[in-house]
Structures are given as structure tokens and as C-alpha cells.
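Exercise 7b. C-alpha cells:
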């Protein structure tokens, strides 16, 4: 009778890894090489950002311009001035001088409005406070003058930058885009400009201006 021979494993021999084990080892090496630490604990980093900063969706913009005359105002976003679409109501047949003031007041009101929910989600804010009014020229003022109920020098740099850049890009400005602005009564007038530096740094760069002589 032949006795079965039991295979003898040589001392020091290693057991060959199975296919699943090889796959796990290979995955660990790849993760380590990519700088990712492997973990057995599920991770949740939250949802991806839903909006790009300072980027608005088309539907929100269209609803802003559905009533009245389409205009643009400058809001603050990511430390800069960025245009958004709005609208103002101007009665038909309004004379040119009165039209300028109505446009300026409408723009001022829009600047003071709290940004819409989509705009806030995209990072838009405003430094212009509500309750401010604008009137046309006084008896001795140039015909293109606009006077605010709050003296311009009392406004923050950001608020003044928003107002000047918004006015300069509208019918409230002169043909060259400059804005003649003053406070109430007979306070001194200045001619303001909206520059590239102001748009890029409205909180630190006030709109450049020059004094209106003889007023």
C-alpha cells in the first residue's frame, strides 16, 4: 500500500497574494502616489459651490429689465465695481433737463436697493444707503449739475464710486461721461470721473474730481 505524500512547504517560502489582495495593494500605492491618504471612513466635503462669484444667471437679469427703461448700475463684488441690469420709469414726453434728474434719481434708488437673492448668492453688495435724493441745478449752477441731499464728501469712497460710475454711464452724465455733482443748497460743485482704477478699487480709490470755477 502506497502512503500519500504530503507536500512539504519550504521554510521561508511566501504565500502568493490572491487577486483581491493585489488589487487592494495597487490601489493603496496609487492613492499614496497621488498625495491622497487612503481611509476607510466615509468623507463628506459638502456640496460644490452653486454659483461663480460675480456671475449672474440670464433669467434673473431679464426680470430686472422687464419694467421701464433698461439701465445699468454698479454694485460691489469681489472688491470691484460690476454692472448689473436694472430699469427706471420715465414718463413719456419728459423734457431733457427733467429727464436727466429722473434718470439720476431712479439710478440712485436702484443703487440703494438690497441686491436680489441671486445677486447676494453671487457676492453682490451695495454701499449706497436709502433715503438719498437728487435734484437738478440751482440758479447759478451749470445746467448739467446734479445735487445730492447728502454732500458727496460725506459719502464713503465705495458709495461715491458706485454713484459716479453709475451716473457716468447713463443719461445723467455729460457727453464725455463726467458728472457735475454737489451737495444741497449752494455747496461747492465738483466734476467727477469714473476711471479704471476706481472700478477696480472702489473702496480705496475715490473718483478723481476737479472744482467747478465761478460757482
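Sequence design result:
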Amino acid at each position: 500500500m502506497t502512503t500519500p505524500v504530503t507536500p512539504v512547504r519550504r521554510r521561508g517560502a511566501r504565500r502568493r497574494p490572491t487577486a483581491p489582495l493585489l488589487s487592494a495593494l495597487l490601489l493603496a500605492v496609487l492613492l499614496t502616489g497621488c498625495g491622497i491618504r487612503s481611509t476607510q471612513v466615509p468623507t463628506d466635503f459638502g456640496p460644490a459651490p452653486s454659483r461663480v462669484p460675480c456671475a449672474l444667471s440670464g433669467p434673473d437679469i431679464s426680470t430686472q429689465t422687464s419694467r421701464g427703461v433698461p439701465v445699468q448700475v454698479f454694485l460691489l463684488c469681489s472688491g470691484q465695481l460690476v454692472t448689473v441690469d436694472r430699469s427706471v420709469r420715465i414718463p413719456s414726453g419728459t423734457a431733457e433737463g427733467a429727464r436727466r434728474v429722473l434718470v439720476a434719481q431712479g439710478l440712485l434708488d436702484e443703487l440703494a436697493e438690497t441686491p436680489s437673492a441671486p445677486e447676494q448668492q453671487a457676492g453682490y453688495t451695495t454701499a449706497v444707503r436709502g433715503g438719498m435724493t437728487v435734484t437738478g441745478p440751482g440758479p447759478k449752477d451749470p445746467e448739467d449739475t446734479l445735487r445730492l441731499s447728502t454732500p458727496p464728501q460725506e459719502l464713503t469712497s465705495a458709495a461715491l464710486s458706485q454713484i459716479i460710475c453709475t451716473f457716468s454711464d447713463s443719461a445723467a452724465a455729460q457727453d464725455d461721461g463726467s458728472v457735475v455733482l454737489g451737495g444741497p443748497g449752494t455747496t461747492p460743485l465738483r466734476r467727477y470721473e469714473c476711471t479704471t482704477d476706481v472700478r477696480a478699487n472702489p473702496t480705496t480709490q475715490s473718483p478723481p474730481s476737479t472744482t467747478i470755477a465761478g460757482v
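Instructor comment: Strands lie at 69-77, 80-88, 134-135, 145-148, 179-182, 190-192, 209-211. The longest helix spans residues 96-112.
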